[in-house]
Design a protein that fits this description.
Strand order of the largest sheet: 2-10-9-8-7-3-4
Number of strands: 15
Bound molecules: pyridoxal-5'-phosphate
CATH architecture of the largest domain: 3-Layer(aba) Sandwich
Shape: globular
Largest sheet: 7 strands, mixed
Strand content: 5-15%
């Protein structure tokens, strides 16, 4: 039988990172490709304890029953407090929606706002799964230039006007893929500019808690005066990605629409997952655990930067993030990292090709390197392998 898929799904393939997940299962390959938190940072003992307590509680049948789409009320209440750590004050129950990871928050925001052909502005480069998802709603992504301070405000305004843009998607803190962070002034200016033109902003924030250097920066949402910013935070990188919990914060009308969208998607985030994250936050485990994780990530990042300086060709330029999970690097244009990739795999080292992060598919001379998953010895060995390989390629 011929399968005739929808127009929406026609151009969708598995994302490069999901495909590369398969490579992670080969222990011989040193992978800088995924975005997994370090295994040693997963709070296994604490979650075991919480899970036992949940099962032993007289309230346990409530966990096994259907729940509210917006999430457990006590969890949502806790989340109103939690987002204060991102500089977002005054959130009430009607402003928060429990989501099954940040990815679902993005999906629900797109579902609520995007019609086929609507233009969505994104930082160039941006999170590749966003590009895929936007495509599935038949949105059209256009890249906005960025500099070390954040988005180029002139380019942003020009493109908002030129395309009559409906939405802006950005990862202002420790971006995936670049690891860069927008300044406070840049955040304020983006909040003002998008409010002026009535552009909805998705502020995607899975990484801000993973800061090992530099000053805390409040969320862009904290500068939102008109309710056009949707803040999406996830517990994947700081508690567990497998537990699938996160929170969306926004104006009540937007949250309500996203809640209705969520009913169609999964009815509600699994109660057990919600309860684990709720108890984890309520018991005050996050701050001390983060302190340890951030130290681990800082050490791994330092090991990668050191190895890059030692082994990579001198033409290779890269970012120096203060947090998050990624370093972003650029080779001279004659290097095509897509073509080189099979040779890297043959030498048992993996990276992500930069072109998947650009709205127009350009950027074949860029790579994203993840430093959270491998240990420091593997980081040194993997970067050495890449350095040798790319030095050979540059000499050809
Ligand atoms: C920028 C960004 N947004 C969203 C996600 C989705 O994460 P989750 O759905 O696990 O919260 C990721 C995961 O890597 C990411 O890097």
């Amino acid at each position: 039988m011929e399968l005739i898929f929808s127009e929406r799904m026609k151009n969708m393939n598995g994302t490069a990172t999901r495909e590369i997940f398969k490579l992670l299962s080969n222990p011989e390959i040193i992978s800088f490709a995924g975005g997994n938190p370090a295994i040693e940072c997963l709070p296994t003992e604490r979650v075991k304890l919480i899970a036992n307590d949940i099962c032993a509680s007289p309230d346990f049948p409530r966990v096994l029953q259907y729940g509210l789409t917006a999430g457990f009320p006590e969890f949502r209440q806790e989340l109103c407090k939690y987002v204060e750590t991102a500089g977002i004050y005054g959130a009430e129950m009607q402003n928060v929606l429990v989501i099954s990871g940040g990815q679902q928050g993005i999906d629900l925001a797109l579902k609520a706002f995007i019609n086929p052909g609507d233009v969505i502005l994104v930082e160039d480069p941006t999170y590749l799964a966003f590009l895929q998802l936007a495509n599935s709603y038949e949105g059209v992504c256009k890249g906005v230039k960025a500099n070390d301070d954040g988005l180029d405000l002139n380019d942003l305004e020009e493109k908002i006007k030129k395309y009559n843009a409906k939405m802006l998607y950005c990862v202002p803190t420790f971006s995936n893929p670049t690891g860069k962070t927008y300044s406070v002034e840049n955040r304020k200016a983006i909040a003002e500019l998008t409010a002026k033109y009535g552009v909805i902003v998705i502020e995607d924030d899975p990484y801000s808690k993973l800061r090992f250097k530099g000053e805390y920066v409040p969320a862009m949402k904290s500068f939102d005066k008109t309710g056009n910013v949707i803040f999406i935070s996830s517990f994947s990188k700081i508690i567990s990605p497998g537990n699938r919990t996160g929170v969306a914060v926004g104006a009540p009308e937007i949250i309500r629409k996203m809640e209705i969208g969520k009913q169609g998607t999964d009815l509600h985030t699994p109660n057990f997952s919600q309860m684990i994250t709720y108890e984890y936050l309520k018991r005050g485990y996050l701050a001390p655990d983060l302190e340890k994780s951030v130290k681990i990530y800082g050490d791994k990042k330092a090991a990668m930067s050191k190895a890059i300086a030692k082994y990579m060709p001198e033409e290779f330029e890269c970012t120096d993030p203060d947090g998050g999970l990624f370093i972003w690097g650029r080779f001279p244009e004659k290097i095509d990292v897509v073509k080189v990739f099979p040779e890297a795999i043959a030498r048992k080292v993996a990276y992500i090709q930069g072109c998947v992060f650009f709205a127009d598919g350009s950027g074949n001379n860029y790579i994203r390197l993840n430093y959270s998953y491998a240990n420091t010895d593997m980081i040194e060995e993997g970067i050495k392998r890449l350095g040798d390989l790319f030095k050979e390629k540059l000499a050809e």
